[in-house]
Amino acid sequence: MGVTVLQQFPIVENRTGPLTIDVLTKRISALGAIQQGQFLVDCETYTSVPQLGNQRTVHVLHNSEQPATVFSILETGTKTIPLATDGLFDLLMMKMNSFYTSKKLTKAESKGPRFEIGDFLVKLGSVTVSQNFKGVLVEVEYKPCVVPAMCWELMREFLQGFLGSSVQSSPPSYLQNRMQEIYTPIDTIHQYLEQFTMYRKTPGMRA
Amino acid sequence: MDRDLEQLHTALNSIKVLRSNVGQVFETVSSGLRADHGEEGKENKFMLELQELLTTVNNNLRDVETSVSSLTPPPGPFNLANTTYLSQETTQERQALYGQLVNSYKWTDKIREYSTLAGNILATNSVNKTYKTFSTTKRRKTQTSNHNVAPDVIENLITGIDRLFPDVTITAPRPFAPNPIIQASLGRVLKAIIAFKGLMIEWVVVKAHSESNDLWTESRYKVFRKVTENCHAAMCHFHSPTMPELAVRSFMHWFHSYNTLFSSPCKRCANHLHNNLPPTWRDLRTLEPYHEECK
Lengths: 207, 295
Prior knowledge:
The structure holds 2 protein chains of 2 kinds.
Chain A: E1 3-9, H1 17-30, E2 34-48, E3 57-63, E4 69-75, E5 80-86, H2 88-95, E6 100-102, E7 108-117, E8 120-129, E9 132-142, H3 148-163, H4 173-176, H5 185-201
Antiparallel strand pairs in A: 1-9, 2-3, 2-6, 2-7, 3-4, 4-5, 7-8, 8-9
Chain B: H1 2-31, H2 42-69, H3 84-87, H4 97-124, H5 136-141, H6 151-164, E1 168-171, E2 181-186, E3 190-197, E4 200-207, H7 222-238, H8 244-256, E5 281-282, E6 289-290
Antiparallel strand pairs in B: 1-2, 2-3, 3-4, 5-6
């Protein structure tokens, strides 16, 4: 598991989502990338019923890169508690139906092709929130390195190589506070949640 | 003694000349009349040639006689020390030993001669790139063997290196072994599994921290495979048979420069990536980062 940077790719006017993915696919293939299957990251959000007191939110996420793991992030309002469990957690959430109800309309997912190029892993995901297309998320993982501070410059150079000027000069806000820490899969999940939350808030497509 | 040897040499030499000239006489006689004698008076020419050759042989014979007469026969019997008893050996299979002994003596003598020559030539043309001086006082201090040393010498060297670089952590699963295998972790960047043969570095594999400590499987990441390759090159470059400790130390010093593997751009092209790889080469002298293609 290496450092992963997630960023959204702006959709130009009169270009659809699949077309944007197509353009990016062509660009990355021209650089020598080889497609290695598909990927899927999904997120479902549950909120506690009023009887439990303070409202709490649980985000349950799956990442096809870690297929046997269910990630969940509990927001109590003051604290954020991440949790990585095995697949049974999904069944547990179903049992807790009466305490935590799912907001079906907010089920978000990002899926699309997955590429390998050198030691990099590139995923081009089209984001849908409750089946509505919202935008394009590009995930780039540099597998050999585990400390974001060490390889951010290198990753930025790679990102700029095929995304062009839409790459920011500073790391994603989630990573900024954790530049010196060892990167773990839950950090990727946090980044996805951050992006999904923004997609959910914006009506229509996110430019 | 020296004069005796010189006379012996001249005598042997004159015998050699005589033999070669006699050989020439027989050759001329056996080939008979040749085309280059022409048509007119060819028999006369042939006779003249033969006469000339025979005169040379005569002269040579006289030389041999004079040089032999000036030789002094060695006083008393030759002293062959213990080897004389070999000739008195009665068992059949050991009678050949004396010949073998002489052969091997000649062989060692030749080796000595050639190695002195080679040593002289190599000393004047410095082919190895390791920075060292050939001073006799320093040379006397080094061990004669660098692959058969006491385990605690190696152990001391390893702990010394461990202390030298704060961000290199060295762990040895079996310390005090004659040929230890150590794991050197370089910060949070990478780790190297280094196998020693005495004081020589015999094998290096570079891997990610998450990978196994196996010496035989290479890393699954391209960048670490490339670094492994470069480590092998450096290992050979720094190898120095006369100063093994220095070789290990300079290798580790060079290896330490990989702590900026992901963070420092190439010195030549100022980019981080080339062929989707960071600068995987470190200059052996300046330790500056370069891409494989930029160095």
